[in-house]
Give the backbone structure.
Amino acid sequence: MDTLTRRGRAVRVLGTVLAAALLLAGTLWGQDDDFPFGPFRMYAGSNPPNDPAPDTRVEGVDTTGAMVPLDEASTGIRRAEIEGQQGRYAADPALLREVADAYAQRHPAAPALVEVRIVIRWYDIQGGRPTGRSSDETVVSWRAS
């Protein structure tokens, strides 16, 4: 096995110190978007044992009145992208037209979507266990004009 030169060793040490400094700075002041140098807080906490658990989905209604699930396979847009932008969609529901357009591109022969909505299904939890009850809340809705 070859040994490292003094310069090679210095480069590796400098790289390690730099990576450690970025990780430390990201942990102290960063956000999830700074990954891999930011804290990955998405799963760092937990809800109290009696709080409902949210499950976000996107759905559409086409010109025939049928409900169409709008998942990654049907639109090319990941659910995490929708959830991450939910505040923007709430502030400007017309942005949901992008989801309808993405669906139309993938399904040109399908009936057009006249409504797109973000729905959260709240699963009831008691004592840390699901009760089997749930309720749906439409948090953002866009209708074609």
The mean pLDDT is 90. The chain has two domains: 6-43, 53-143.
